[in-house]
Amino acid sequence: MRRTIIMNLLLVGCLQVVLAQNTIESIRKVYQAQKTVIAEMAEDYPYDGYPPAYYNLSVVMNLPATGLHHENIRMYFGEVEQDEEEYDPYPKHFLSFLTTKYNFAAREFYEEYLYDLNGKVMFIYAQTPDIEMGSMHELRLYFDGEKLLRLNVKECKDLTSFDDTAVKKAGFKDVYTGTAIPEAYQEPCRMYRQKAKQYLGMFKSIDNTVY
User: Fold this and answer.
1) Mean pLDDT for all residues in the chain
2) Is the peptide bond before 89 cis (omega within 30 degrees of 0)?
3) String of DSSP letters for 55-99
4) Residue range 44-65, pLDDT digits in tens
5) pTM here?
6) Which residue has the higher pLDDT, 58 or 158?
7) 173: which strand partners?
8) Rounded CA gap, 206 and 84, in Å?
């Protein structure tokens, strides 16, 4: 019952940002609802929690110059609301949230993509290390359709280690917040928006194959 309520809240939140203009506040509400849904999923269901619902893609390959590359992509999805008179036990799905963690050589990257019911990305979070400079950057991008609502960039400096404990101890500080993208961040931001579309296409291909 609780999972149904949570999924309904997520669906309502997605509908709100489809039918009206996105705001940073509305996007954050959908993001928190999505995180709650994920937290309620339990791998040992039915003994605990609620059944997981996601696709997981694991990539392992050897790349030129950087060596062994690992990438783990997890796609969380919801069920499209149905007409009771035309009920389908295998309803269509929509991609709601995607996470990816990957490496190039010793550098570890992490990204999140939050989507609305129309497949438009609403929010992107990216964590990127710069080992040579001993720093870590966090980027947060909020969107209303194709319009950028806000870019927030934070930096963690003077890192001798890039594990979670070291990064947490050093802490992030604000570098930039605004509605325009400075030249230094234009290329990565363009890349993340392109990846959001590519991941959506990947999800549709997998979902069409499964069902």
Assistant:
1) 84
2) no
3) EEEEEEEEETTTEEEEEEEEEEEEEPP--GGG--SS--EEEEEEE
4) 666 666 788 899 999 999 988 8
5) 0.86
6) 58
7) 155
8) 26
Distance CA 67, CA 71 (A): 13
User: Can you spell out the DSSP letters for 104-116?
Assistant: ETTEEEEEEEEE-
Six token digits for residue 209: 């194959």
- Segment 4-29 shows an average pLDDT of 66
Tokens of 197: 């579309």
Tokens representing residue 199 in the block:
């991941």
Residue 104 φ then ψ, to 5°:
-130, 115
The encoded tokens of residue 35 equal: 């995180």
Angle between helix 24-40 and 2-19 (nearest 10): 160
Amino acid at the residue 12: V
Alpha-carbon distance of 208 to 211, in angstroms, equals 5
Question: Could you read off the pLDDT of 32-47 as tens digits, one per residue?
Answer: 999 988 988 876 666 6
Q: Does 1 score more than 50 pLDDT?
A: no
| Listed residue (42, 10, 47) closest to 29, CA to CA | 10
Strands 121-130 and 107-115: antiparallel
DSSP letter string, 12-60: HHHHHHHHS---HHHHHHHHHHHHHHHHHB-TTTTSSSB---EEEEEEE
pLDDT per residue over 66-125, tens digit each?
889 999 999 999 887 766 667 676 778 999 999 999 998 878 899 999 999 899 999 999
